[in-house]
Amino acid sequence: MSVYEEQIMSIYQNELAPWEKKNQYYQNLQLGNNINDQVNHLNKQTKEMIETQLGTANSIIASQERISEKTDAVVRGVSNVEQGILELKSAFEWGISEVVWQIEQNRIVLKEILEVLMAPLDTQAKERRTRAEEAYINGWIEDAEEEFLESEKINKFDFSIHISLGIIYLFHRIDKPKALQYFKKAIKYSKPKSAFHTSFSLLYKALICYDMGNIEKAEKNSFEALTLTPTLSEAYYQNAQYNAQLIETDKSISHLEIAIKSDKLYCLKANSDKMFDPIRENVNNLFEKLKNDEKEKAILALEKLTKQQNKIKSLIKDMRQEPTLTLSNVKNLEISYYSVEKKLTDLSIMMKRESYFDFLDINNNIIPDTYREQNELTEKIIDLVSWEYNRAKSKLEQAKKDHDKKNNIKNIFNDIDLPDIENICLVSSAVAAVVTLFVMEGAGKFYFIFFIIPFISQLFMLGLVGGMIFNYSSMNKYELILGWCIVLFWIGAIVYYLSVLFKYREKFANIIENESHKLKVLSPYNERISNLHKIDTTD
User: In this model, does residue 43 exceed pLDDT 80?
Assistant: First the structure.
């Protein structure tokens, strides 16, 4: 047995070890009836704990700028503290384990197990157990011990009773051998029901073994705890502590790394934890390795972001000088561009801090946020250029199609929303009818009837115009007036059609020319955006 182990046995067998006492920042955390109050106190005091630990943090872990900003203390709220030790992670300490056990007893998973275990009991037995819990919460330790012991006689398979008695004997009676006896019972009866509560009890057993100087057993029990519940970060951390004491360096560092990757604040805990002193150099090397791993990830991400930003910068600069593009849209792109540019500048400045926590923050928060914003900007550029290009292409194709309708005059007039042939024929009949009423005398006004009847009016007009061509001299003056009126109207109509046709062709010729030019201008941009893909952040 080593001198260190003898010292542990002589000092901590019948008294609380320093690591079993509450630290100053947890002094106000007490047992009570209101779990919400416990959660709020735990949140507040955890932040105080982090501030205390940050004050002595290794520069590899946290930069001075970060410490002064108190970033990690602010964001560390234990939001899921109702999950007990699983979510507390680095915030867990043995000095507050009674409160943690109270929180654990309110978890649904334990309540469901206890419902099954207590189902066969009568009302009196259930009430006795309830009285034991109430006495314990109120700090009536003697009454709680008495009631739990009686409850144990009634239902020895209820492992939660054994855990409660183990805690009473460990922290209040300071009877560690008896506490160990009850945690062994808790392990035995919880194994078939709950791997987690078996691990929970194993950590207590490991603690007592360590207090009694048996580090090998402490290591063995904590290893079993993490094997049964791989999500229990505290089991990895405590196993790393015991392996550090045994100078099992590789195993200690390996499990400490797992704990840190689950909760970075284990760095702060390990940095000031004297149990790691035998392998302190290796622990510091781990901090350096973790920092460099995150640094490498940050450098690669920054290079990728910068490369993309340079492409965007060149593209927006050229688009800014291109008159075919809507200036207001380009200005909106510039606003987004400068926002990303500022993020990249801030990121570069933060990387110079050269600390693990800063690189973690960069990789987990700042870079993903910058990726998102830059990808949104990329998407806006692609959408704008694609929209302008496709719009010009569509307009050009439509203009060519419309221009090809030159042989179909009806289509021309329909397309440009002007009167069609039928309407003009009707108007010509109306003109002839009105002229008839004014120039004809007597029975000649009966011509009016024929001009207001569709189709018949057209036959009469053809007859009149034909008479003017083949038998002009035999027509009376009224018929000649009406005939010339019809001829002049149709000459006007033909001139009108020709002028419309000319304007129509001129209009679409201009559209074709303009859109062809726009397509020519936009083609290079369309090719450039094909190389401007959004960054895949999963690489």
Answer: no
